[in-house]
Amino acid sequence: MKKEIRILLLEDDVVDAELNKHALREGGFNFRIERVEGKQEYLEQLDRGKPDLILSDNTLPSFDGFTALAIAQQKCPDTPFIFVSGTLGEEMAIESLKRGATDYVLKTRLSRLVPAVHRALRESEERSERQRAEERLRDSNEQLRALTVYLQYVREEERTRIAREVHDELGQALTGLKMDLAWLTSRLPKDLKPLATKASAMAAQVDSTIQTVRRIATELRPGILDDLGLVAAIEWQAHEFQTRTGIPCTVASTVHDPILDQDLNTAFFRIFQETLTNIIRHANAKQVEVRFQEMEGKLVLEVKDDGRGITEAEIGNTRSIGLLGMRERAGLLGGEVLVKGERGKGTTVTVTIPLARSKKAEQSNHEDSHHRRSRGGPARSEADPRR
Fold it and tell me: Which domains does the chain have, with CATH numbers?
């Protein structure tokens, strides 16, 4: 059995209404028709529920078909609207289509009614299916974005936890080992110089390992980011970059609040790290300039180098995981990353994130931290021991 379709018919002539019904029955439709003549009845029927199809005469006792069409577009814009009239001239028929009518059928040619209704219902179903598909895609994108946010958060929390354990547990163990070596060396007989030399070498190796542990812990999650804030962390990272590569890296900041919310700090810092990594790998730069400022309610980080200049093909390369990751981090906070290169004159990376969005994130982080503490979960300490 075919699905019953609900049809709202605006027709003041009973005979014409019956002719419409007869044509639809002959066409094999399973339908239920509510016939109305006036505007008030029409509005009441629309308020009761969206019909599957509206058929309307153009000339009605209290109002006209174009008014009925305008009302339908307001109350149920996805419902097909077909004019069935004997007074609709060619110009008015074209005008009705321009205003959003699905089709028009002359009462003298009701044989066109059935194919017109078939086409209107088919197109309506296709639109509905397309809308449902778009909604499913939108929901999937929102779920994927929420998952990405959660994974970013979990990854940073895990990096922080590992950094603390590496620094505290392994660092303390190595420090204890160094103290034991010092104690043992001080008690070795003076005539056993080979053993004393070996012990000194072991102590030097322990010192080197301690430095390595500190470096690994800092790279996982620099304590300065949590203790002193984003500006200090950017300056520290720029100094590390300059020390490691020999490329001068200057930082100019006009941001007065040094400690922002955790998500914003992490996003800017990781994007900055990735930008410097790309400069090392690809730019062949001799100088890097960094500007960090607040403009019109947004935080803007600009990193400019004087290297070879990134190409449009490289910017649009979907396999460039680094650039994709930078854009995703900014996008999760309602921001964007713009990359511009000029051949032989360098590359400029501009990161812009709304400050208002970051303040909302700060409140969310505070609530989340309180929730974790209430469940007995780990909460961020006031001061990170890593230096």
Answer: 5-133 (3.40.50.2300), 224-387 (3.30.565.10)
